[in-house]
Amino acid sequence: MRPAGKPAPPWAGPEVTVTVEPPPQEPAPASSASSVALTRRDLAIGVGVVVLAIVVTAVLAFRAGGGAGAPAAGARPSAKASPSASGPPTTAQIYAAVAPSVVSIEAAEAGGTASGTGVVVGADGTILTALHVVKGSTAVKVRFADGTQSAAQVTGTDPKTDTATLAPASLPDVLVPVVLGNPGRLAVGNDVVAIGNQLGLTSSATAGVVSGLNRSAANPDGTKLTGLIQFDAAVNPGSSGGPLVNGRGELVGIVVALANPTPAGTFVGVGFAVPITAAGGGLPGGQT
Predict the structure, then answer these.
(1) In sequence order, what are the beta bridge partners of 117?
(2) Active site residues
(3) Cα separation, 111 vs 137, whole angstroms
(4) Model pLDDT for residues 226-276, shown as the tens digit of each residue
(5) Buried b (16+ CB within 10 A) or exposed e, 236-251
(6) Tens digit of pLDDT for each residue in 6-59?
(7) Residue 181 in contact with residue 252, Cβ under 8 Å?
(8) Angle at 284 between CA 282 and CA 288, to 5 degrees
(9) Chain centre to alpha carbon of residue 215
């Protein structure tokens, strides 16, 4: 612009008016309350989406697995019994349990001394043995498993089964009666163990099976024994009167005879025992 009253110079063009526009104003930011509200809403939506995704994934996995492991409605947990892994006792374990009940017997007679085996069957010290071991004796002496020795009296005899009972005059500090079993439950093939003083070898153990039931055999004096248990656990002279026990270590018979087609009188695989339910006229207290 030129001052008023002065002529325009010859080079001057028409006047131009310039208008200056104010700079554009930025929109005002939202209030802090609105920003916070928006942030919380977005957060709630995000969390909801995540939770929904987890639930959907779990449902799909459950269906894919057929619901395995999920208890039925109203079902209660239950415990099931499982068989013991220990199994039946071994021959060594049976021997360890029965040997403390086995005694050695020496019977003095006119012609010398007879030896045999017996087994403690009562808490009072009653001993069961074979009758032919003590028959005709003038004195009987017993030795318990712990070494205790005592005189004994013959208190009962049963010639039909070739068995006898003895009462020792004194007892060891610890008396261990044998556990009585039920020979009526025996079957051919069942395991058995015989313990005795065969051929003077004290407290020997032999194992075998029941070979037959209700057998007959002849006694050394010619009498006939019936209803016997036949077994193949080795027995020899000196085994007479010893225990025959089942696979659980329970007394089921008293060894009374062996069969040998030769005059040797030694074991060839056939031994016989009287069932304890018949021995001594029938012992009470056998397991049923």
Answers:
(1) 104
(2) 132, 162, 240
(3) 10
(4) 999 999 999 999 999 999 999 999 999 999 999 988 888 889 999 999 999
(5) bbbbbbbbbbbbebbb
(6) 455 444 444 544 444 555 555 555 444 444 444 555 555 555 555 555 655 655
(7) yes
(8) 105
(9) 34
